[in-house]
Amino acid sequence: MPVPILKQGAILIATVQSALTDSDTERLRDDLMQRVSQFRAQGIVVDVTAIDVMDSFAARSLRTIAHMTRLRGAHTVIVGLQPEVAFAMVQLGLAFDDMNTALDLEEGIALLNKKLGLGRGARKTTIGRRGGG
């Protein structure tokens, strides 16, 4: 099942809605790489909140996606890891020590905004004294 990828400013949001097959995982990777280039995305959120079981291939693939997108200049945050999934990944030695994670979509976007310095520029332009005001 294809994973929908939405664009929110400079951030892409991929919401995984059900367990991914190996081919689904590869398609997600390819789709994200293509869209990072197409939209010049600076950040990616992969939301796995709906996933209560994740195999080692999918977990390694998420890490690979994060590394590939980083090489393309985009930061990736994995959000919504269920406690059981996180526990199983640690037991299998698949911890995401070198990756950004957040509890939910809101925290993931906030983390990316902070990393990318997004939001601050908008405030500066609205408070600025240019334009006679």
From TrEMBL:
InterPro entries in the record: Bact_StressResp_Reg, STAS_dom, STAS_dom_sf
Q: Name one Pfam family in it.
A: STAS
CDD domains in alphabetical order = STAS_RsbR_RsbS_like
Could you identify this protein by its name? RsbT antagonist protein RsbS
Phylogenetic lineage: Bacteria, Bacillati, Actinomycetota, Actinomycetes, Mycobacteriales
